[in-house]
Amino acid sequence: MTLILPDPLRRVLPAARWEAVTHGESGAGVWRSQRYVVKVQARGGLPASTLLQERERLRWLAGRVPVPAVVGYEVTPEHEYLAMTRLPGLPMSDPDALLHPERVVSLLARALRELHALPVRECPFNMTLPVMLRLARERVAAGLVDEEDFDDERLGNSAAEVWGELTRTHPEGEDLVVTHGDACLPNLIVSGEYVEGFVDVGRAGIADRHADLALAHRSLIRNLGAEHAERFLDTYGRAFVDERKLAYYRLADEFF
């Protein structure tokens, strides 16, 4: 498979050998060269986020937390294209990064605390519970929920059944912060002792902090085991953690 760029991006990006990236679950095709990354997403349907939304979030986050710089955005009748700089380093999920589990746990907790400390009043992106529920409902109605990708405890259930559980069990209040929206290990880039940045920020916005904590905790269980996942919650701060909300936001992620 070959990356074919629209003319405006070809004029901006230098000629390069593009490599397809296989990790991650953003729903977009991802290509990288030595210096740049290009995401390609089909237009139409009801994606959890469009690349235009990701571009706007990258622009807002720039200078607040480390993220790639936007190089260009283009639309054709069939696709969206988002070009950005490539961050140095490895995804936290890379086997070489996982050789140092204590470092991964510490860096992940510190990066999320830094993101969650941004002033909510300055963030223009609303991903609060009513918005999330509306997006989930739209995806169920459009038949876009992948029932075969449900977590083990929900395999065999229909999207409508899981939607019913989501609406019945939602928490009464929200602990609102600026969230990443998909805080899994592949979406943080590390280099040595540093987090070089967040990627795949198309769902970033104001939401309950557990929207991030739940997915980070689950990702650590899958990549490093439950002991390290629990140490992450300790490092982030147990005073902020509600176990029921962790379960709820894992449930909510089934729709995206």
Automatic annotation (TrEMBL):
Gene3D superfamilies: 3.90.1200.10, Phosphorylase Kinase, domain 1
Lineage: superkingdom: Bacteria
All residue ranges annotated as the Aminoglycoside phosphotransferase domain in the record: 19-245
Alphabetical keyword list: Antibiotic resistance, ATP-binding, Kinase, Nucleotide-binding, Transferase
Family matches, as Pfam families: APH
Classification via InterPro entries: AGP_Transferase, Aminoglycoside_PTrfase, Kan/Strep_kinase, Kinase-like_dom_sf
Family classification: Belongs to the aminoglycoside phosphotransferase family.
PANTHER family: 3'-PHOSPHOTRANSFERASE, PUTATIVE-RELATED (PTHR21310:SF41), AMINOGLYCOSIDE PHOSPHOTRANSFERASE-RELATED-RELATED (PTHR21310)
Cited NCBIfam families: APH_3p (NF033068)
Name assigned to this protein: Aminoglycoside 3'-phosphotransferase
Organism the protein comes from: Deinococcus aetherius
